[in-house]
Each structure stands twice: as structure tokens, then as C-alpha cells.
Amino acid sequence: MSKDGILVTGGSGLVGAYTVRMLLEKGERPVVFDVAVNERLLGAIGVDLKSISVVRGDILDLPGLITAIRDHGIGRIIHFAAFLGEEVQRRPYSGVRLNLMGTVNVLEAARLEEIPRVVFPSSSTVYLGSLGEGGPKKIDETIPLSPLSVYAATKAGSEFLGRTYAQRFGFEFIVVRFAALYGPSPAGLKATREQAIQAMVRSAIKGEAASIKWPYGPSELLYGKDAAKGTVLACLKDKPKDNIFHIGSGEMATGEQIVAALTKHFPKAKITLLKGERPMPYPEERIPNDQSRAREQLGYQPDYLLEKALGDYAETLRKIESI
Predict the structure, then answer these.
(1) What domains, with CATH codes, occur in the chain?
(2) What is the pLDDT of residues 233-274, one digit of tens each?
(3) Contact between residue 293 and residue 226 where contact means Cβ atoms under 8 Å apart
(4) What predicted TM-score, i.e. pTM, was given to this entire model?
(5) How far is C-alpha 47 from the geometric centre of its chain's CA atoms?
(6) Nearest Cα residue to 250 out of 211, 302, 297
């Protein structure tokens, strides 16, 4: 079998599902590797399950991962499978085990099976400790890593592991660091911000009044489709000069701005924001990350700024939740 398949671990999560769809649209052969395949989300965003290969597998099972690579002729890997931020804070041992050892398993599989490229979606949280008073006025890929949470530490650690594995064993390890993700998904482990935005969208669709806790200052939000776009570009780009890319929207948004943008789609929406407790130890004062490198080398530009993204969000959520 030719090795033209692209294994997408966590391929039925929010960004993974959109990534699978975009790979299909580009004529690629994605293979979903996930411990619990979210068929509802894949179907809602237009992925025909008959058009893809699906492997139900645990990222901590290295033999199972290698078997999937061999059986499906895999030539590249996109590694999404992980516990998300607040879940790692709640269950640090399980989070570290899954996030770090899952990455090690992917790297070992790449080494043993001679996979030429691994793409690793990381997070802007890896450098948040370098912000603050007197911190950098420009956030590009040279910013020092300084994680402030266990989750961020697992992402930073995975970046270092991938970099050293790639140097030692001669394959490409490309990092795409995402801004704050949001998007429609039935997943139960969404972060507080994602849960709040989804609650806003749901109440607007239903025309129901809602009071929603919002604990954040302005943040750079990144819609799931744009995160997938950056990932696919990094996966398919031939010989990029660099191997770390910041992927974001370039715009900051407050909770009030999210509500205002949503109200343009649903003028009768009645959403009240309440001050909530901050769930993660991240600074409230931030600036957008610099995306010059991704734009120049990958051709990345965000397609879904806030208002357009929320319209797409609502349309997809209607399909997922039948509302």
C-alpha cells in the first residue's frame, strides 16, 4: 500500500473533524484515529463516514497506533488527541500521562515507521508566563516558553520532545500554536470559555433568555475551522522554512463583543453576562499573536472572524443538537 494516508489522532474532536473535512476537500486520504468517534459532529460538518477510514484506538496503545499506520499506509500524522486545559488542571496525573505519553507514542511510531512529518497542534498558553508588565510587545514564534498551568506544561513539553525527536531521527515536526479555540461540538470536556460561548449560541437559537458566567478579559479567539485550515496548510506545505507557526484570528474579543456579534444574527437574543471566577491562572491582559510567519510561509489567513464565525457556529449547532 502506498504511504499517502494522513493519520489524524483525535480526528473526531472539534478541530480534528474540520481537519478531516478539509483534507478530503483537497483530495487527501485522512484516517481518523480516536478512542470514541464522534459521528454526530463529523456528520454535521459534512463528512461522509463512508468516505473515510476510522480506527477506534487509544493513543496510549503504541502497538495499536503502529498497526493503524501499517494497515492504512500512513505517510503523515496530525496529532490532536489530548486532554484539554481545565480537565488537565482537574486531573493532572491523567492529563500529563495522556498528553505527554500520547505524544511520545506518536513520535516513537514516526521513528519506527519512518513517517516523514508529524504536525502537532499546540497552544498559545505555552508562553503566557512571558506576558505581563514589561513583557513583549510582539508575540511571534521566538517568544520564550513559560507555561502557567499543568496543561500548558504538557503542550510545551510535547513541543520540546517533538523537536528533539525530529532532530535525532530525521523527520519533520511542525508545531501550530492555536489562540483560544471555540466552535460547535457536543464534546463534554469543553473549557469554560467554550461552554459559555456555546450556551450563548444555543440560547440565541432558541430565543430563550440566558444569564451566562464570563470570567475573561479580552482574548484572541480562534474558530475551529480556521484552526483546521492552519493545521492542513502545515501538513501539506512542501518544505517550509520554519517549523513553528502561530495560528489565530488577529482580533481580540470580550464577552460583550461576542454577545453583540451574535445579536446581529439573532436580534431578539437576550443574553446577560455575569462575572465568573477565572478557571485557569492566565493573565487577563493580552495582545494578538503575530501571524506573519504563517501568512508568508503557509499562506494562512483567517476566514472566520467573530461575526461570520458565530453565524456558522449557530448553523452547525442546529444540526448537532437538532434545534
Answers:
(1) 5-182+220-250+284-303 (3.40.50.720)
(2) 999 999 999 999 999 999 999 999 999 999 999 999 999 999
(3) no
(4) 0.96
(5) 18
(6) 302
